[in-house]
Amino acid sequence: MDQTQVAKELGLSCMLNTEVGAVLAVIRRGPESSSQFYHHPEEHCDVSILQSLKSLRAFLFNPQQEWRRIDPSLYLSPFLDVIQSDDIPATATAVALQSVLKVLRLGIFDERTVGAKDAINSAVTAVTGCRLERTNLVSEEAVMMRILQVLTAIMRHRASVLLTDHAACTIVNTCFQVVQQSASRGDLLQRSARYTMHELIQIIYTRLPDIEVKDWENSDSDTEDNNLDSGYGIRSAVDIFHFLCSLLNVVEVMETEGLISQTADENVQLFALVLINSSIELSGDSIGKHPKLLRMIQDDLFHHLIHYGACSNPLALSMICSIVLNLYHFLRKSIRLQLEAFFSFVLFRIVSPGSSLQLQEVAVEGLINFCRQPTFIIEVYVNYDCDPTFRNVFEETGKLLCKYAFPTSGLSTSIQIQALEGLVVIFHNIADHIDKENDPSPTGPYPVEISGYRPFWEEKSKDDDVETWVDYVRVRKVQKRKILIAGNHFNRDDKKGLEYLKISQLIADPPDPKAYAVFFRYTPRLDKTMIGDYLGDPDEFRIKVLKEFTDTFEFAGMILDTALRTYLEAFRLPGESQKIQRILEAFSERFYDQQSSEIFVTKDAVFVLCYSLIMLNTDLHNPQVKKKMTEEEFIRNNREINGGNDLPREYLSELFHSISTNAIVLHGQSGAGAPVEMNPNRWIQLINRGKFIQPFILCDFNRRLGRDMFAAIAGPSVATLAAIFEHSDEEEILHECIEALFSIARIAQYGLEDTLDELLASFCKFTTLLNPYASAEETLYAFGNDMKPKMATMAVFTIANTFKDSIRGGWRTIIDCLLKLKRLKLLPQSVIEPDNASDLGSDFPAHERSESGVVFPSHDPKFGGRHSSSGIMGRFLNFLSLESVEDALNNGVSEFEQNLKIIQQCRIGSIFSTSASLPDDSLLNLGRCLIFAAAGKGQKFSTPIEEEETVGFCWDLICAIASANTHRFSTFWPHYHDYLLEVTQFPLFSPIPFAEKAIVAQMKMFLKLLARGQSDPVGELLLKSIVLMWKMEKEILDTCCEFLVQSASEIIVKYPDKLQTQLGWKSLLHLLSVTGRHPETYNKGVRGHNHIDV
Question: Which Pfam families match (predicted)?
Answer without folding.
Answer: Sec7, Sec7-like_HUS
